[in-house]
């Protein structure tokens, strides 16, 4: 239809990165449809943050998909017997959730097909990230290739794109971009073990990266800490 705006599905967790991605997609002229996952994560306050930020940034629709990743466990975020680390570590950390982004992107891809959206946005980052294999550019490129092979849209020539605009940004750069686009970071929750009120621990990897980002950007950190 003439004049119809382009559509995008944006994966939002309620955290700093994905909320910035939503603001970027909106600034590029997309009608944004946001999707979050209730997958049994410790930090459930993030789901409310995702809904609030989606509304504040003008999402057309926001869906929360229920998945029980606790059924397989294997991560400090989905298994209460594995503690969230509060010291820096090397290698892939125990907060990595097996196959999480692969699963999330697959469901977002399905919604994109239903909506007639050619773009799926995700807030993965390969610079200031925690060592997750599904946050690398190689993964995004491979997933995009698969998406165009596995879908009706791709087969019919409607190329699907997996957009990861934060991939090469530092956390400070992300914070500056989001601030310029009007993101209210006080509404976001990044902590791996935030309490039910959304207050952050200030000790986990995600909290440390967030703190460093605001400090390096020269901006006040609006996070509520325990």
Automatic annotation (TrEMBL):
Which Gene3D superfamilies does UniProt cross-reference here? Answer: HUPs
Q: Which cofactor does it need?
A: Zn(2+)
Q: Does the keyword Ligase apply?
A: yes
Pathway listed for it is: Purine metabolism; 7-cyano-7-deazaguanine biosynthesis
User: Which enzyme type, at the first EC level?
Assistant: ligase
The record's EC number reads: 6.3.4.20
State the Pfam families in the record: QueC (PF06508)
Residues holding Zn(2+): 191, 201, 204, 207
Q: Which reaction does it catalyse?
A: 7-carboxy-7-carbaguanine + NH4(+) + 2 ATP = 7-cyano-7-carbaguanine + 2 AMP + 2 diphosphate + 2 H(+)
Biological process, per Gene Ontology: tRNA queuosine(34) biosynthetic process
Q: Which UniProt keywords apply?
A: ATP-binding, Ligase, Metal-binding, Nucleotide-binding, Queuosine biosynthesis, Zinc
Q: Which residues are involved in binding ATP?
A: 12-22
Q: What InterPro entries does the annotation carry?
A: QueC, Rossmann-like_a/b/a_fold
Q: In its keyword annotation, does this UniProt entry include Ligase?
A: yes
Q: What detail does the entry give on cofactor binding? A: Binds 1 zinc ion per subunit.
Q: Name one GO molecular function term.
A: ligase activity, forming carbon-nitrogen bonds
Q: Which purpose does this protein serve, as stated in its record?
A: Catalyzes the ATP-dependent conversion of 7-carboxy-7-deazaguanine (CDG) to 7-cyano-7-deazaguanine (preQ(0)).
Member of which family? Belongs to the QueC family.
Name by which UniProt lists this protein: 7-cyano-7-deazaguanine synthase
The record lists the organism as Marinibactrum halimedae
